[in-house]
Amino acid sequence: MKTTLLNSLFAFTLPLALCTARADIPPAERLLPSDTLAVLCAPDWSKVTAARQQAPFALLWKDPAMRPFCDKFLAKLTSDVVAPIERDLGAKLTDYADLLQGQFTLAVTRNGWTGAGEPLPAFVLTLDARDKADLLRKNLADVKRKLTDSGRKTRTDTIRGVEFTTVILDRPQLEGGLGTIGGAGAGAGSANTQKSGAASAASSPSGQAGSTIELSVGQADSALLVGTSTKVLEQVLARMAGAGGGALADLPAFEADASGVLRDSLLYGWIHFAPIAETLARLFPAGEGTPDGEPAAMMAFGLDKMLGALGLSCLRTLAFNARQNAEGEFFDFYLGVPEETRKGLFAVLNATPKDASPPAFVPAEAVNFSRWRADGQRIWASVEAIANEIAPGMLGLVVMQVEAMIKERSPAFDLRKNLIANLGDDFISYQKAPRGTALDDLISPPSVTLISSPNPDQLLQGLKSVLSMLAAPLSSAGFKEREFLGRKIHSLPMPTLPTKEGSAAAEESVHMTASGGYLAVSTDAALVEEYLRSGETKPKPLAALPGLSEAGGKVGGMATGLFGYQDDVENLRTLTEILRNNGDLISQALATSPIGPKSGEPDKALKEWFDFSLLPPFERIAKYFHLTVYAGQTSKEGFTLKTFSPRPPKLNP
Fold this sequence. Notes:
alpha+beta, 2 domains, 23 helices, 20 strands, 21% strand, disordered N terminus
């Protein structure tokens, strides 16, 4: 019954969601109210469709070499997802495919929400079928008829001359269905359903309003409108007719982001975080528990205090923008935090632009690389500020205790002088392809992290002291030293924890050395040796990789203070071959993890969806992959992470 109800909801909404808004009606920011909390929008779905057809992933999916894998996945999708929905709908989803035409907008509005009880935030979906308006009208009539024939609770509303069919859904049953789909046990799901249903009823004045959800669907010209609030739908219709003020476009927070990060989007998302943070802080003040009355440790400090200390109360907006052209695919992620209010986590990001290009010692065979020119002193100062605001004096007490324990072995040790004061402003990390095809090889590929320092030898000694103290309760082994090319490599065996089967995991050591102005840290001894060797024998540098500099220019260059690179070809080659030869690898990983099945048995259901043994040899599909670069940029308004994936050369005409 619960699953049937959930499928009915999907059947009612999913076919309608296979549509989008057109250029003739106002854009999303002119339709939505200014109290919009979040919006996901494709301004023109026809452009999304055209771009998607030429995207490397879409071409990969259509490649004959992928057919065995794709056919098995699609068969499972059809039998387990599509078929049940089509049974409830009484129609084929392909009948609705032609409705995918213009603008698509899904939004959440505040709708008077204060954080507790009714009213709740409202959802609204606007879609434009463009010249398929008659087909949309026919499909809506069919859906309405089937709902009536099935005995669903419905009513007819007229809003600004537009007829809407409103479906009344039982919230406890719907939530129970979601719990069943999510894998909850029958007993637990039932208990949770009763509890949430009672809570919903209690929160509404009548004891009944909170126990139902109303979903209204109607058509205005070629636009489909779906919403949980007739009030919000009325506002949208008014703006479609050129009336009504207070649109999202008039909100300064959105206007600033729209003129910057959201321009020229194929698909964009935007969240107005400031009112959400304000509501949450008011809802969970210091000293109170969670909404159901159960205590929560975090609430002892107050969520308002936590948000303030972390700097999240300064976060105004979040946004992303996805674009594609003949050069490749672009993705921008933005955090709107005005410069004058930055604190907490955002004080760390507030860095001065510096060279972040790959240094000469980073080899060309690196499959992942990142360089962040953050000031280590500023990072520590920000951590101190956050800790002291949440729990004054707590961090200082911890530092004193750590120092006291270390001084039992090294009386002259000073955490600030020996460790903190020696942090530089350059953090580099690079990784090579795994050396084998076992699960452990995939999880822990060879990688090294380098930290610049005005005195790397002293930084190494300070870090040794801290690691020795932390490892001491679990392992009696101390640091071992050996000479290599005139430098010392310091290695500390790390404590191992038993696996779920009770056997000990493979022993792993941390290897450290100081050279060239950096402290190098890695669990791979060979990579540390390679770094030391690069001082005498220069490797073929990653910086000289063909196309890297040009790609970097598309994300603002390599002098913004943060730059990264990944070799998609080699990363996917490794993953593909490992999955092909170890079809149950992911199931095995889940079975041996702390959150995996207690029985330790591989999850057979996973293989029914994703049979990796059917993947082709990577060389047959390598042409669909190339590289990806990213760079961070800081402005007075906020932070932007720009990502670019050039079109694979072998796909160019």
